[in-house]
Amino acid sequence: MAEDTFTIANKNFISRLIVGTGKYKNFEETAKAVRASGADIVTVAVRRVNILKKDEPLLMDYLDPKTITYLPNTAGCFSSEEALRTLRLAREMGGWTLVKLEVLGDKKTLYPNMIETIKSTEVLVKEGFEVMVYCTDDPIMTKKLEDVGACAIMPLGAPIGSGLGIQNETNIKLIKEQSSVPVIVDAGVGTASDATIAMELGCDGVLINTAIAEAKDPILMAESLKYAVISGRKAFKAGRMKKRKYASASSPDENLI
Amino acid sequence: MNNLNVAKIQLNGNPYKINHGTNLNELLNKLRIEKNKVAIEVNGEIVDRNKYSNLILNKDDKVEIVHFIGGG
User: Fold this and answer.
1) Shortest Cα distance from A243 to chain B (angstroms)?
2) A53, A100, A108, A126: which one is catalytic?
3) Going along chain A, which residue ranges are E strands?
4) pLDDT recorded at residue B1
5) Does A23 touch chain B (CB under 8 A)?
6) Does A66 participate in catalysis according to the annotation?
7) Best of A27, A49, A84, A102 to disrupt the B interface by mutation (most B CBs within 10 Å)?
8) Is residue A99 within 8 Å of A89, Cβ to Cβ?
9) pLDDT recorded at residue A1
10) ipTM score here?
11) End-to-end CA separation in angstroms for chain A
């Protein structure tokens, strides 16, 4: 059976759903949701250790980086310098070169600053990082990112944490068509149908955090999104029927009684 | 005269007192932090994990200890 594997930077993954680990009540809930989602990759943030709270529980105690791929992010970074510093520290910490870059441009929309993002991608690639890049859904920008060596393009569906669903399906489709690296919709997915749409458009994967963490039952939502992504992927591979203007009867007209 | 043995550093943005001659390994032990779960920067430079015991902290050094937390 031909496996429909998902390859990023020469590494194979089974699940096309990447999940974030932020906004959960506690690490126990995080771990349960991640397990229910079936994700092989989780995003993590880099922050100062709380020196005053000794023996604080650590994410690593709940999600073993040996069994799940940690994808360090640069959330909260508004300049290239901050983002580079964060990812260099992340590499020292875990030894991973696969990272998620996001350089933000505005506090209210959390829209990416594409000028700083492209600049940072270039530097990181030169330093040996494999960079998955959060970006706008602008096909010219994503092309530039690919040109400077991004290993995956991650256009936003809608602003981070908004749950608005994919706002510009045409652009996502254009980006997918022209890209030779995986395209992963990052941000904006609010519920299962949004994730399915992303996959039906032909995207290689979806990255989701808030839709799970802020659901009334995060674990159930995580499971739902797992199936939504699988479902959308299968529908894309199956190739949908053509739309037509008028009805087309499903039962034959011959031999009517 | 006790002060002679004490040096003040900046640890994760806050003043922190250490004994003179403290190296990074000793600092981590004191803070009960496992070294394989963090990364450390001293004065803006990332320190190789294998060199923690060689790095002796000086007065006014800026030390940042970071780890992975939940994020999207």
Assistant:
1) 37
2) A100
3) 6-8, 11-13, 17-20, 41-48, 69-72, 98-101, 130-135, 152-155, 184-186, 205-208
4) 45
5) yes
6) no
7) A49
8) no
9) 47
10) 0.91
11) 45
